[in-house]
């Protein structure tokens, strides 16, 4: 099939030929004819499948008729990151050169003034990140009731970045009769719920099986130590072993991007850094330097993993194993594009085996190791049975958990009971005879709880039967017509409320007097 079979206009076909595109990708073959008709489309597609052109070309064809009015754009494209938004704007410049359409790029890190001027003149196409779009709307600089076509790109990435509430709010501001093109690499339940809510009888198109890597990418694993310095040395050794034209080095955290960037600079590598904390000017300049070959390596966070069209990346190095298995697919998808061969290697420390197994389970295949499979970390149970100073497995002699050495009746281990729990290798200590109580102490000792304390009911009995001690007389002092309730100097007699109150026993009997609430004596 050729582009002429997709229902595109002559102007669009001329621009496609001038751009050097000869044959549409399988995704463009499936999505193009449906999108041109104005029907909603739900696309599940990985990167490097020609996704951007699959909605840009039909949109250009449909926007040839009509013009936008001031502050009322005709189409809206939502992207999760500034880089993706800027990249889509470049596609419009290339493929829409035969159209006199105005494109407004609304992203953060750029002055509002230039964006306001484009909106005031009338923008046919608005390409925006959700946050900046809502900023313009709330300032009254943008009206959304003229939108004819909505494109939500990288929907699962929007979910990861917390943009779903913004997407829902934006969709509710748009006309009900719009066309919606919804693109996502994966379909978690939240994304499926969003698609069901805002798409009307969509055509579902899957360009490739979910969570699969391109067959042209060679994938390898390399062992790395846990310590950061050793891990950086393993990365440098890997970069020197392989003939690398250029490469992107992915890290999980922005902090590690900066650390890896400075380390590679110190060791003489031509490297740049790309992460979310850089301002837009720095990010644009770094990407341009990497595209034109001024720098050979790019240390990046996942902000650069999705959708960036850098056509000729020879290698991908995963400095960290991705937290989410799907991110691995998007990272290595930066190489092996358009049928070229690519190479992706990942450093794996002993702590990363669980995350690695999740990736291999998603891929349904094991990734080969460069230097032999790394040993998995020891089971947790082994760490719990380390010998102590007496040579025992866990501190007691019988190999059982320490908690099991206590009596089930709550008494502490002492005397014969303690000796029975000792290891036969430990010297047994002769138990000393217990001291007998004095003859005058006739009352048996009250039962003990697990902490060696009196049970509360026996404590209450003792409080009732113990003779009144002289020092209690000073606890019930009268102050300013009030008696502190709890331990009065003399207990009231009879059936008066005071007497009944004095008979009650409970937790309040053991609270210090200064914490009790004063009771006014009538």
* Percentage of β-strand residues: 5-15%
The biggest sheet, with number of strands, parallel, antiparallel or mixed sense and barrel status, is: 7 strands, parallel
What's the count of strands? 16
Named CATH architecture of the largest domain: 3-Layer(aba) Sandwich
Write structural notes for this entry.
This protein is α/β, with parallel strands linked by helices. It folds into three domains: 3-206, P-loop containing nucleotide triphosphate hydrolases (Rossmann fold, 3-Layer(aba) Sandwich), CATH 3.40.50.300; 217-363, 3-Layer(aba) Sandwich (Rossmann fold); 477-506 and 513-522, no CATH class. Helices cover 34% and strands 13% of the residues. The chain has 18 helices and 16 strands. Residues 378-447, 449-492 and 496-500 have low confidence and may be disordered.
How are the secondary structure elements laid out?
Layout: H1 10-19, H2 26-36, E1 41-44, H3 51-62, E2 75-78, H4 82-95, E3 103-106, H5 112-121, E4 125-128, H6 130-138, E5 149-152, H7 155-160, H8 164-173, E6 179-184, H9 189-198, E7 203-206, E8 217-223, H10 228-241, E9 247-250, H11 254-266, E10 271-274, H12 280-291, E11 297-300, E12 315-318, H13 325-332, E13 342-348, H14 353-363, H15 380-384, H16 416-420, H17 456-465, E14 478-479, E15 482-483, H18 497-503, E16 519-520
Parallel strand pairs: 1-6, 1-7, 2-4, 2-5, 3-4, 5-6, 8-13, 9-11, 9-12, 10-11, 12-13
Antiparallel strand pairs: 14-15, 15-16
Helix pairs in contact: 2-3, 3-4
């Amino acid at each position: 099939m050729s582009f002429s079979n997709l229902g595109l206009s002559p102007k669009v076909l001329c621009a496609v030929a001038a751009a050097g595109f000869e044959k549409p990708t399988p995704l463009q073959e499936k999505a193009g004819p449906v999108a041109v008709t104005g029907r909603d489309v739900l696309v599940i597609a990985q990167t490097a499948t020609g996704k951007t052109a699959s909605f840009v070309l039909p949109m250009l064809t449909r926007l040839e008729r009509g013009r936008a009015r001031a502050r009322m754009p005709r189409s809206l494209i939502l992207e999760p990151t500034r880089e993706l938004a800027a990249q889509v704007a470049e596609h419009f410049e290339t493929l829409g050169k035969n159209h006199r359409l105005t494109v407004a790029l609304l992203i953060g890190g750029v002055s509002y003034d230039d964006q306001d001027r484009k909106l005031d003149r009338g923008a046919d196409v608005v390409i925006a990140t959700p946050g900046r779009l809502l900023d313009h709307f709330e300032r009254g600089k943008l009206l959304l009731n003229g939108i004819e076509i909505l494109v939500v790109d990288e929907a699962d990435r929007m979910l990861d970045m917390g943009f779903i509430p913004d997407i829902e709010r934006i969709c509710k501001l748009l006309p009900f009769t719009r066309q919606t093109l919804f693109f996502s690499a994966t379909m978690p339940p939240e994304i499926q719920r969003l698609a069901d809510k805002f798409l009307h009888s969509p055509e579902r198109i899957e360009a490739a099986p979910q969570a699969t890597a391109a067959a042209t990418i060679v994938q390898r694993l390399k062992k790395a130590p846990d310590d950061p310095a050793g891990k950086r040395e393993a990365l440098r050794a890997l970069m020197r072993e392989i003939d690398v034209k250029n490469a992107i080095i992915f890290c999980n955290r922005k902090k590690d991007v900066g650390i890896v960037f400075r380390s590679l600079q110190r060791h003489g590598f031509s490297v740049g850094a790309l992460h979310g904390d850089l301002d837009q000017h720095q990010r644009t300049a770094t990407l341009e330097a990497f595209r034109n070959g001024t720098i050979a390596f790019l240390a990046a966070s996942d902000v650069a993993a999705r959708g960036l069209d850098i056509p000729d990346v020879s290698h991908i190095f995963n400095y960290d194993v991705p937290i989410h298995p799907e991110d691995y697919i998007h990272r290595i998808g930066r190489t092996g594009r358009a049928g070229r061969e690519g190479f992706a290697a990942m450093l794996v420390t002993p702590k990363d085996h669980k995350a690695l197994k999740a990736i291999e389970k998603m891929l349904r295949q094991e990734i080969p190791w460069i230097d032999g499979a790394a040993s998995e970390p020891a089971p947790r149970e082994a760490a719990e049975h380390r010998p102590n100073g007496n040579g025992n497995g866990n501190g007691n002699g019988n190999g059982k958990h320490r908690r099991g050495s206590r009596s089930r009746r709550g008494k502490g281990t002492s005397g014969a009971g303690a000796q029975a729990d000792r290891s036969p290798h430990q010297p047994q200590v002769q138990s000393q005879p217990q001291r007998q109580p004095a003859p005058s102490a006739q009352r048996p000792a009250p039962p003990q709880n697990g902490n060696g304390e009196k049970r509360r009911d026996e404590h209450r009995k003792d409080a009732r039967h113990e003779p009144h001690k002289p020092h209690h007389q000073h606890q019930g002092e009268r102050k300013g017509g009030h008696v502190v309730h709890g331990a009065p100097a003399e207990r009231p007699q009879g059936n008066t409320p005071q007497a009944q109150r004095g008979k009650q026993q409970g937790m309040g009997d053991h609270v210090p007097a200064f914490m009790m609430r004063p009771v006014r004596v009538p």
